[in-house]
Amino acid sequence: MSNFDLVIHGGTLVFTDEAVPGDIGVRDGKIAAIAAPGMLRNGSRTIDATDLHVFPGAIDPHVHLQTFQSTFDVNVRTETRNAAIGGCTTMIPTLLNREDASVSFLDYYPWALEAVERDSVIDAGFSAVIGTDQQIEELPAMAYNCGITSYKFYMAYTQDEASVFGILAVDDAQFLAGLRQVAAIGKPAIAMVHAENMSIIHNLKAKYIAAGRTDLKAWTDARPDIAEEEATRRAIWYTKETNSQLYIVHMTIGRGVDWVRQAKAEGVDVIAETCPHYLVLTKYDNDKVGSLAKVNPPLRDAESQEKLWEGLRDGTVTCVGSDHSTVVAKPDKVKQSIWDAVPGFPGMGMLLPVMLSEGYHKGRISLPDVSRILGLQNAQVWGVYPKKGVLRVGSDADFAIVDLDRERVVTPEYMQSAADWGLYDGWNLKGWPTQTIVRGSVVMDSGEVVGDPSFGQYIPRYPYDKGN
Q: Which tens digits make up the pLDDT trace of 417-433?
């Protein structure tokens, strides 16, 4: 009789502090044993991971599946396949009803839950875009009834940009009210903030449009560092005054690393996230990616890049997420110019490969850093630890088994997003998952998604005083 449902043997296990040879035994979807090499062989199924590295499955905390064309349920079906290709086993999409952003999430949640349980090949929690007084009032009910404890507030997106996304930006009074609600709910609740000062941006956009600028750098010049700097510092100040919990999404600016470090030293509960594209591309890459790289906030420069990598190494920048969005056909993305191109790009499946190829293989971070950032820290901040994000007995058996030496040219066909393009198309990246495993079941094997579309589970993230 087998002791385990699955044994992974012969591989190198990548923990947050070291990478060492070892075996893993899985029972009932959980890690049941971790042992020295050759000690675990008695499994109903075995995977030989010789010459491979076993990471905890990547967690993507920053995902948008309700943007532009297809509805949330349709995108769940296609984009979780993209995630599985890249070793991502858990996502936390941000809910938004683009047709009517004022809809109560207490009403929207059951439909989104059904979509995940019917169509996702990986596990999921939920965030929500908050834009009305009623939604702010409903935050405690969302937390205790639905397990939704991350709420996104847009200081950005007013005037024409609001209509593009179907987003309701909040004013400062609403943001403060949201921060107070988050403080009252307690951990793991966080107020996510997209920090850009739009009063600076709108005038600059008009100026550069009138000047006939159409290059990628024009988009950055119209959304300068100071627009993000001012809004970020204001959000940190509000968080300090309300004793709340702040999560700065997609931080791009190098000076932001210093402010977050200083705020943490002063006892402010602030978490910074960045995204792979800010780590590997700059505003000067027009010839390389053109309008495909239009994103908000925009790409910056090499100096900010290095500060972000530094922040990841020393822990000042805690999380990395893909900001996966814009699941549209390529002509609908690029349109006529940088000004009407749609911001964003698919990215869940690229999260781990980019961090391995451009981070580890280029000496910017270590393998344990990758495990710590995409696994442990994303799990801790987002309230799914120790269920997710670590190689430890009792945790879910979520793994990305990686061939660090495998090189592959990125193509839309391989990545399997519903979008027929990707930001990294044509890049030769080194270090790819050969298998993705969710709760002990293989959902991706050698580039083929083999998981049942209804395998994914919803992960409620209740306030800690209720218990998960």
A: 999 999 999 999 999 99
**What does the alpha-carbon distance between residue 464 and residue 468 come to, in Å, rounded to a whole number?**
7
Banded pLDDT at 159 (limits 50, 70, 90): low
What pLDDT was estimated at residue 140?
A: 98
Residues 96 and 129 sit within 8 Å (Cβ to Cβ): yes
**In angstroms, rounded to a whole number, what is the distance separating the alpha carbons of residues 309 and 72?**
32
Cα–Cα distance, 85 to 434 (Å, whole number) = 9
Burial of 264 (0-12, 13-18, 19+ CB in 10 A): middle
Can you name the CATH fold of 58-381?
TIM Barrel (3.20.20)
pLDDT tens, position by position, 314-335: 999 999 999 999 999 999 999 8
Report the distance separating Cα 202 and Cα 183, nearest Å.
Answer: 32
Q: At residue 380, does pLDDT exceed 50?
A: yes
Domain with CATH 2.30.40.10 in the chain: 4-54+395-449
> What's the pLDDT score for residue 467?
56
How many Å separate Cα 129 from the centre of its chain?
15
Q: Return the pLDDT at 1.
A: 46
Rounded to whole angstroms, how far apart are CA atoms 165 and 96?
Answer: 10
Tokens 């009789």, residue? 1
What is the spatial distance between Cα 422 and Cα 426, in angstroms, rounded to a whole number? 9
CA gap 233, 239 in Å, rounded: 10
Rounded CA separation 377/296 (Å): 24
**Looking at the chain, which residues constitute the CATH 3.20.20.140 domain(s)?**
58-381
Sign of CA dihedral 221, 222, 223, 224: positive
- C-alpha 355: how far from its chain's center? 13
| Cis ω for the linkage preceding 297 (within 30 of 0) | yes
**How far apart, in whole angstroms, are the C-alpha atoms of residue 444 and residue 433?**
9
Look up the CATH architecture of domain 4-54+395-449. Roll (2.30)
Number of other CB atoms surrounding residue 413 within 10 Å: 8
